[in-house]
Design goal:
- The chain is mainly beta.
- It has a domain at 34-96: GroES chaperonin (10 Kd Chaperonin, Protein Cpn10, Chain O, Roll).
- It has strands spanning 9-14, 38-44, 64-67, 73-77, 80-86, 90-93.
- The chain has a six-stranded antiparallel β-sheet, with no helix packed on it.
Length: 96
């Protein structure tokens, strides 16, 4: 399945960190972890705003970005959890 976001929305996939453990050596279950804020851009919308004007995106497919913790809508695509967010929920592009 392929999804193309509409308007100023972006499809991203969160980058899951390696297995986490506490300073005491205890492995943390998924329910105790915070959602990662790093994500990879998978697809972009058509760039149109509410008035129909096309606005250029600040990101491109493949960019590694920093996203807000609780924004967006979670969707499952081919068994993988992804997120559709507004471009405004992208806090920055991670370089390097």
């Amino acid at each position: 399945m392929k999804i193309k976001p509409l308007g100023q929305r972006v499809l991203v996939k969160r980058i899951e960190p390696a297995e986490q453990k506490s300073e005491g050596g205890i492995f943390l279950p998924d329910t105790a972890k915070e959602k990662p804020q790093e994500a990879t851009v998978l697809a972009l919308g058509n760039g149109k705003n509410d008035e129909g004007e096309i606005i250029e995106f600040s990101v491109k497919e493949g960019d590694k970005v920093l996203i807000s913790k609780y924004g967006g809508t979670e969707v499952k695509i081919d068994g993988e959890e992804c997120l559709i967010i507004s471009e405004g929920d992208i806090l920055g592009v991670i370089e390097g």
